[in-house]
Design goal:
Largest sheet: 20 strands, parallel
Low-confidence stretches: none
Shape: globular
Mean pLDDT: 95
Length: 785
């Protein structure tokens, strides 16, 4: 493959390379860094790259950008693959599955949003054409944004076809966000993201085991960004599902960020970043295999398959009572009609299964699920991830799992709950078995349940554990078993910080709940629920629950933790500069001039409790009533951290942040995280002489043979993984760097040296950002003569 060749279809070449590697004992496929384009897909499967049965193979694409022609097809899928690694690349499309328009007015009488097109975006009316590879009309949804943030008084609005060139018609589909009173919250100047939810996931790993996805960024999704289906012992690490950095895109995917379906055992989702998804951020789940349609004997059950699900003879299964959520029977499948086959069955096809012993009479629509924990998530680890600004639904949803640990995650601003542990037995949604043996610890959840209250499921708390019956009514009993919620930080929500519902045997200990249950009447909840929502810790329809000790803090003001250089709240790195914003944080303005920086300045201290529970005193750089800058200690563990500011004996602010080994941020001249880059240009002439100028001046590329090198200042990148290096983006043009690492003379200061490509001569103002292990910095600018 040749990089950066818009005329080359790389699809057949990469698939041919994989086929050659499998037949010639080659274990590594790599590529020169650059952009690669994929224009053709497999018409029989609707996939661009479709690998089957690969074993012991690594794809390391050296940070390259992969662009796919259409956004409604699967970009990359690996089926029945064993020990395959996908490393170091990004996925994007030349035709996004969404567009953006600007609101001019709202006609609530006719449920219309009047709009005008935005430059460089596809016309909304183009979405009248069906993009679904299956051929049926896909649903269209609208999300409302104001000043770049999702408007929580609206949500995922269904849009009717045909779309007019001047307005969108919102369907009155019974959802609370589609009624005129909610549409009235949309204002002129808002931006609507219009999406077509169709096709399949962007990247999928199905029916294999022991696979790895690492340092991979997904910048779009017509549905799910990354799908891991029936792929035990698989790891997703440092995967991003986010809007493409350096663009004005407001959303990433139309559905979940990372979804693990029928996940099997020992799945790990670690150090991933999920932002602006149209549905749940991360969703490991074990769904129904089938639903009961009848029973012809004490050992014979008639079922309809769920989608294409297959269940071999000898498989242990459970049937779940859809009225109570409890298992009604557990048995082994002895035989079935039609006979079991490895071939893909008919979608929703009927089967009659024979069991190994007598079972009681089942009810219509009772779900059949896996009985063995090895098929239902045993050994699951979801740790040290960031989930932020989910457009609708939950930060993380955990359905039907038997075992797992959810720890060290930061979840900020989901529409509903931050972490939802769910059993649902309604045929209108996924049907599952009860959750058991789940530990939720040392997570940080901020600003939760901001939309629609009890009108939706699993929005009743920052950590919300609940079971619902066939009619979406809360179960009266406690089918969920052995749930531990410990040492979490939950902040800033109108409802309960922790809700333990429908659990038999559980514990709620060591949690810090700050400013929760602040407005139990918010979003018009069911009046019967308000007494529960008032409780910081609500224990409902549960038994044998331990709920002490926990700390309820209704006094400390919420603080906001960011990089002190880019002001991004996504993550901060050890040995980097960070900031806390709030009110009355410090008694005065002061700057530390000692070497090293002091742990206390004028009585102000910043304490970081990391994901391992270790407390660190952060060196203070600067204090003011509304902002404190500090240096992140080098020994902070990665994962969720709680940052507390004290002034004298008073706690003046507290907030959460993800600590990651990589969180690159570029300095700007005006210290805003934007505008002209801070640094210098070094022009090296052919005779070796040099001219150094600040970047406040235009960069001079000199004469042919001269080399112009940018010396840029950064923070948060010195602990980069050597397996992947660093890339600088001049606009969309990717360039290697000559040096990236510690500057050496000052605490927390990193440096990047990069040569300016000669093709940019006379380019004028150019956007600049650095990408390290797939993690992107803020965007600054340089001017090039």
């Amino acid at each position: 493959m040749t990089p950066d060749d818009l005329a080359l279809d790389s699809r057949p070449l990469l698939e041919a390379a994989a086929a050659y590697a499998q037949t010639h004992a080659v274990t590594l496929i790599t590529a020169d860094p650059g952009a690669y384009y994929f224009f053709t897909y497999h018409t029989n499967s609707g996939r661009y790259l479709n690998f089957t049965g690969l074993q012991n193979l690594t794809f390391d694409l050296a940070g390259s950008d992969l662009y796919f022609q259409g956004g409604s097809y699967v970009s990359l899928e690996c089926d029945n693959c064993q020990n395959v690694q996908f490393l170091n690349f990004t996925l994007d499309t030349l035709q996004l599955p969404f567009t953006q328009v600007q609101v001019t007015s709202v006609d609530t009488k006719n449920n219309r949003i009047n709009y005008t097109p935005l430059p460089n975006w596809e016309l909304a009316a183009d979405f009248n054409a069906i993009r679904n590879p299956a051929g049926s009309a896909e649903p269209l949804y609208a999300f409302d944004f104001r000043n770049g943030a999702v408007v929580r008084s609206t949500s995922r609005m269904s849009v009717q076809r045909p779309i007019d060139l001047a307005f969108l018609t919102i369907a009155s589909d019974g959802s609370p966000w589609s009624n005129p009173s909610q549409l009235a919250n949309i204002q002129p100047g808002d931006v609507i993201a219009l999406s077509a939810r169709a096709g399949g996931p962007t990247l999928a790993i199905r029916n294999g085991s022991s696979n790895l996805i690492k340092n991979v960024s997904v910048y779009f999704g017509s549905q799910v960004g990354v799908m891991l289906q029936s792929s035990p012992n698989t790891v997703a690490e440092q995967v991003q599902v986010i809007p493409r950095p350096g663009t004005d895109r407001l959303m990433s995917t139309n559905a979940d960020g990372i979804s693990a379906v029928q996940l099997g055992q020992n799945l790990t989702i670690r150090r991933c970043r999920i932002r602006r998804t149209g549905d749940d951020g991360i969703s490991p789940n074990s769904q129904q295999l089938a639903v009961v349609t009848g029973q012809t004997g004490t050992r014979t059950v008639k079922v309809n398959r769920s989608a294409f699900s297959n269940f071999p003879d000898g498989l242990p299964v459970q049937f779940i009572d859809n009225k109570t959520g409890f298992p009604a029977a557990t048995a082994l499948i002895v035989s079935q009609d039609p006979p079991y086959s490895t071939a893909t069955p008919v979608f929703g096809g009927a089967a009659t299964i024979a069991l190994d012993h007598d079972i009681p009479t089942l009810a219509l629509n009772d779900p059949m699920v896996y009985a063995d924990p090895a098929f239902r998530g045993a050994g699951l680890r979801v740790e040290n991830n960031l989930v932020e600004d989910v457009l609708q639904a939950r930060g993380m949803s955990l359905w039907g799992l038997l075992g797992g640990t959810i720890q060290g995650n930061v979840i900020r601003n989901p529409g509903w709950s931050g972490i939802a542990v769910i059993e649902q037995d309604s045929t209108q949604t996924w049907m599952t078995g009860p959750v058991a043996n789940m530990t939720i610890q040392r997570n940080a959840i901020e600003q939760f349940s901001t939309a629609f209250g009890t009108a939706v499921a699993s929005a009743l708390g920052g950590i919300d554990i609940e079971a619902d019956d066939l009619n979406f009514a809360p179960d009266a009993g406690s089918p969920l078993q052995t749930i531990t919620v410990q040492n979490n930080f939950v902040s800033a929500g109108p409802y309960s910080g922790i809700r333990m519902g429908n659990v038999n045997v559980g514990s709620i200990t060591g949690n810090l709940l700050m400013n929760v249950s602040t407005n139990p009447n918010a979003n018009n909840p069911n009046p019967a629920r308000i007494p529960e929502l008032k409780q910081p810790i609500a224990i409902v329809s549960s038994s044998s629950i331990t709920s002490t000790p926990n700390t309820i803090d209704a006094v400390t003001a919420r603080a906001y933790v960011t990089s002190a250089i880019s002001f991004s709240d996504q993550a901060i790195a050890p040995d980097s500069f960070a900031a806390v914003f709030g009110t009355n944080l410090a008694p005065k303005v002061d700057t530390a001039f000692t070497d090293p920086f002091p742990p206390s300045l004028d009585g102000v201290m910043v304490t970081i409790v990391d994901s391992a529970g270790v407390s660190h005193a952060a060196p203070i750089v600067f204090i003011a009533p509304t902002q404190i800058n500090f240096l992140v200690p080098s020994d902070c563990a990665v994962g969720a951290a709680v940052v507390t500011v004290t002034s004298g004996t008073a706690t003046t602010g507290r907030g959460a942040i993800l600590i990651d080994s990589i969180a690159p941020a570029l300095f700007s001249v005006n210290s805003s995280g934007a505008g002209t880059a801070l640094g210098s240009s070094v022009l090296t002439h052919s005779d070796g002489s040099q001219v150094i100028t600040p970047l406040t001046d235009a960069v001079d590329l000199g004469k042919p043979g001269d080399v112009a090198t940018l010396v840029l200042y950064a923070t948060g990148l010195r602990h980069m993984d050597p397996m992947n290096g660093v890339a600088m983006y001049f606009g969309n043009q990717r360039e290697p760097v000559q040096y990236a690492g510690a500057q050496g003379g000052f605490y927390g200061l990193d440096q990047i040296n990069v040569n300016v490509p000669v093709q940019l001569r006379s380019a004028g103002k150019v956007d600049l950002r650095v990408q390290v292990n797939g993690m992107s910095s803020n965007t600054v600018t340089v001017t090039i003569n």
